[in-house]
Amino acid sequence: MSPESARRDCEPRRPQPNAPVLRTAAMIASLDAEGYELVEAPFGHALVDLAGKDPRVLGLTADLAKYTDLHIFAAAFPDRFYQMGMAEQLLFGAAAGLAREGFLPFATTYAVFAARRAYDFIAMQIAEPGLAVKMVCALPGLTTGYGPSHQATEDLAIFRGLPDLVVVDPCDADDILGMVPEIAAHPGPVYARLLRGRVPRVLTRHCPDYRFVLGKGRLLREGADVLAVSTGLMTMRALDAASLLAEEGIGMAVLHLPTVKPLDRELLLAEAGRRRPLLVVMENHSVVGGLGEAVARLLLEAGAVPERFRHIGLPDAFLEAGALPTLHDRYGLSVKRVAERIRQWLVGGGRTSP
Amino acid sequence: MTTSERLRRPNVPLALRAFNIRRHALRMARVQGQGYIGQALGVADVLAACFFHALNYRPEDPQWEGRDRFLLSVGHYAIALYAALIEAGVIPEEEIPTYGADDSRLPMSGMCTYTPGMEITGGSLGQGLTVAVGMALGLRRKNNPAFVYNLMSDGELEEGASWEAAMAAVRYRLANLVCLVDFNGQQADGPSREILLTVPEEEKWRAFGWQVQRVDGHDLEAVVAALEQARGSEFAGPRMVIFDTRMCRGVDFLERRASAHFVRVEPEEWDLALAALERSRPQ
Ligand SMILES: Cc1ncc(C[n+]2csc(CCOP(=O)(O)OP(=O)(O)O)c2C)c(N)n1
Ligand SMILES: [Mg+2]
User: Would you say the pTM of this structure is higher than 0.80?
Assistant: First the structure.
């Protein structure tokens, strides 16, 4: 058994007098993205914009409107909002029914409940018939300190397994604002991970002309030593780590792939073909079944095997509860830890193993 | 149904429609030497009353926007619905020999992507009513006066999602939703009453806020009256009709054997079954 999955002991805990108090950043998922402008509820506002232009748009939730930013939509369009109660199977079944009648339903809940509880309903009532239901789900990967009941560490693996389902992991507010009209325009079903509340604006800060395009990746930054291939909030981490490493003379290119399925194969192969000494996939997800394995298979099949391939993701384990910044540090998702590992991997002219 | 749609149907007695549905189903099952024939024979009267009395549809245009939506939540009952769709002229009778074959439009478990007139993919039991809720909401949004009928089984009453949908249908006062339960008293592992406590069914659904009727599913007059009442009632919410049925109804020697979810029929018995059914042909 790996140390991460070893059961914790049940000894009483004494407060440590001098330790800093870290609060469980659970329901308010603080992403610890210092120095970035924060955008309030980008999903809610983008959906209101879209609904103003497209009368087919409806919003449904399973008692989590306030926690998926759908309350903004509900307030703007009360008669186009459906509260389905804490009943996730009904949520997606009813969304399928509305899509069958020609509507464009956006259904929200937490990613764990979509992936684990309602999976069969999503598979058979939405994905198999190819209905245009947009599932937008909060608390992806490690974005809550509530522990395994709320941490959707395997949702990408689960949903990548569904044929014809488009899977999106947006990085920031720019991605979310751009994603909403793009996924609405896609004629089939979409699963999108959601960052909610006050969401940092990162991508246009680094890349002023950045624009989310469904199915497309984007090289956000050049660099000759490392190619980071990242999705979701790990692109944020990759960009910040790249700035740190640049001060030390290490050049890290950052390739952002917000659409996890289907992958932007062409761009990925083009960038992998430039043969930087180290390729690191980074994702806010278990190392099993997510972007890392998808990229590895694609590169192997295309014969585009990088000199060295490394993977930053969550361990194959049920994670601990706690404060989010602590957990990101512990499980390797913080900027500091990302930079550290890349430095290590590059030691010795890049020829040592991890 | 609108008078115009009703007049489009030839005036064939419902009992004969039910008989034909049973015969189509037996002929299909004979092709594969198996099939959920117990369910098909059991629900044939209900389907006859639905497709030749209650439902509004156009056989030549299964996607007609004004149609009533008939959802087969019970995917394993596909053979029964195919038989009804054949009788209704949606599927040509010539396709009977393709039942369950490669590239057939009539797979063993019902799927909307294969068969005209099959509104949803059932089979993962307990999903139909949730989709029916969404479709009923959608129809109302469009001011479309069509109804949604969801056919489910007694076993599906045990699925948690059925009760999620039951609450939503009341919460949204879905008076355009009719849920039909084929209560054949049988599930995969044995008699329904011994599996989980769905009794008392009527009281439970009523307590959730539904209008509930329960009738003998082989008494065609009672079935028709219940469907009329479900559709015509002024009740401001969803409607449930529970039909008590007997598996294998119409084929005497199978009916005596019908104490299992999957009724075994020996190869030489298919012709006997068709002959037995023939003896019950309505005059
Ligand atoms: C969600 C789900 N669980 C289990 C099954 C397997 N299964 C198929 S039919 C059946 C019996 C369900 O009861 P009912 O539909 O009343 O059975 P029948 O009347 O056809 O004997 C079961 C358990 C299934 N298809 N779907
Ligand atoms: Mg049954």
Answer: yes
